[in-house]
Specification:
This protein is mainly alpha-helical and about 350 residues long. The protein has 3 domains: about 5-130; about 145-240, no CATH class; about 250-345, no CATH class. It is about 50% helix and about 5% strand. It is built from 16 helices and 5 strands. The protein has a 3-stranded antiparallel β-sheet with strand order 1-2-3. It starts with a helix and ends with a helix. Mean pLDDT is about 75; it is low at about 1-5, about 240-310, about 330 and about 340-345.
Length: about 350
C-alpha cells in the first residue's frame, strides 16, 4: 500500500474513513448510516470531520509515531466516534490499546496529540495556524524532535564529552542540570547560569533569551508555543538594541557631528540673528569650535542667513592668505581680549 496523501485519504479523514479494520471488508450499509448521522451534526462538527486538514493532522501524527495506514484509520475512527458521542475522551487510551500493535505509552501519546491538535484546536481546524501551547517536558514527549532543535549558534563543552556539542535544547538542559543542583533551580540560579557559566558567557542576546525560556519551562512548567507541523518551539522575535545595529564607517562621524550640533541648538540657551551677533557667549564659541574642528567652516541652519564659524586650527593654505582676506568673512568672533577692547572703545 502506497503512503501517498491520495492513498491515505480514506485512512485519515474521519468522515470517509473505512468502517472496518480491513478495507477489503468495508461495510457499505454501515457507511451509509454514518453519512446519514453525519448530516444531523452541527456545521462546525461536520467541518472538523470532513476537513482535509483534520486528515493531515492524523497523517502527521501517524508518520511521526510510525503507525501503519490501518492504525491511522483506527485513530480517524476514534475521532469520528468522539464527535458522534459514542466514546469519551477519557476512553481514548483504552480504545487505542485494542490494537495489538500499540503499547500503553504510545496510546497515551496518540490520545494527547489528538486532544490538543484536533479537539482543543477545533476553531482553527480549517485555518493555516497549527500551534499548541504546552510545557517543555510534554512538548518533547509529544514531539521528540524538539530535543534536537538548535537554540544557540555556539557549541557547548559538556562534562565527560571530548568534543563540543551542538547548541540543542537537550544539550542545554543537560548542561544546566549538570551545573545547577535541582534544589537550587529557580530564577536567580538561571540568571547566574546564563551569564556566568562557561558555555553561556559568549551567547548573543537572542540565543540567551531562547535558552532562558527553555530553562524556565523546564523549572516551572511554563508553556511554550509549539509548531506542530515543523515540530519545533516558536520563540518570540528578539528586537535588536541600538548597540547591536552596525553602522558603516561613513555614517558614524556624520551622526556624531549631527548629534553634537543639535545639542548646541538645545543647550546653548541663546539665539543668534544677523542683528544680534554680539550676544553669543564665549563658552558657546568654544563648544562650536570643538565640534567643527575637522572642517574649515560649518553652517548652522535655522536663521535666515547661514552663519559661518571659523575653526581655530588653520590649514597651511589658510596661513598663506593675506590678513585682508580673512577679515572679509561674513561673521567673525573676536577673542576675549579683543572683545573687551571693543567694549572700551564704545564707552
Amino acid at each position: 500500500m502506497s503512503n501517498s496523501t491520495t492513498d491515505l485519504t480514506h485512512y485519515t479523514i474521519p468522515h470517509i474513513v473505512y468502517t472496518t479494520k480491513d478495507p477489503a471488508q468495508q461495510n457499505w450499509t454501515d457507511f451509509v448510516a454514518i453519512q446519514e448521522k453525519f448530516l444531523t451534526l452541527d456545521s462546525d462538527v461536520q467541518t472538523i470531520l470532513a476537513s482535509p486538514h483534520t486528515g493531515k493532522i492524523i497523517e502527521e501524527i501517524g508518520k511521526d509515531i510510525g503507525l501503519s495506514p490501518k492504525q491511522m484509520a483506527g485513530v480517524a475512527r476514534m475521532v469520528r466516534f468522539y464527535y458522534f458521542n459514542e466514546i469519551k475522551k477519557k476512553d481514548f487510551v483504552t480504545y487505542l490499546l485494542k490494537d495489538p500493535g500499540t503499547d500503553k505509552k504510545t496510546a497515551k501519546r496518540i490520545a494527547r496529540l489528538i486532544e490538543i491538535n484536533i479537539l482543543d484546536n477545533s476553531q482553527e481546524i480549517t485555518g493555516e495556524a497549527n500551534q499548541i501551547t504546552v510545557p517543555l517536558s510534554e512538548a518533547i514527549q509529544l514531539y521528540p524532535k524538539i530535543g534536537k532543535q538548535m537554540i544557540s549558534d555556539a557549541p557547548l563543552k559538556l562534562r565527560a564529552q571530548a568534543d563540543p556539542k551542538r547548541g540543542t535544547v537537550t544539550n542545554w538542559i543537560y548542561d544546566y542540570r549538570d551545573k545547577v543542583e535541582s534544589t537550587k533551580r529557580g530564577a536567580i540560579a538561571r540568571g547566574k547560569y546564563l551569564f556566568n557559566s562557561t558555555n553561556a558567557k559568549g551567547l548573543s542576546a537572542g540565543d540567551r533569551q531562547k535558552i532562558s525560556l527553555v530553562l524556565k519551562s523546564h523549572d516551572e512548567k511554563t508553556p511554550l508555543t509549539i509548531d506542530t507541523t515543523n515540530k519545533q518551539i516558536i520563540f518570540p522575535q528578539t528586537q535588536k538594541r541600538p548597540s547591536d545595529i552596525k553602522k558603516t564607517p561613513a555614517e558614524e562621524p556624520l551622526k556624531a557631528q549631527g548629534s553634537s550640533i543639535s545639542q548646541i541648538h538645545s543647550n546653548a540657551a541663546f539665539t543668534m540673528s544677523p542683528h544680534k551677533e554680539e550676544k553669543a557667549t564665549i563658552s558657546t564659541q568654544k563648544t562650536i569650535q570643538q565640534v567643527i574642528q575637522p572642517q574649515k567652516a560649518t553652517h548652522i541652519v535655522g536663521t535666515e542667513d547661514a552663519m559661518t564659524f571659523t575653526s581655530p586650527h588653520a590649514l597651511p593654505s589658510e596661513k598663506e592668505k593675506p590678513q585682508q582676506e580673512k577679515d572679509k568673512t561674513p561673521f567673525h568672533m573676536n577673542p576675549i581680549g579683543s572683545a573687551k577692547k571693543e567694549v572700551g572703545k564704545k564707552k
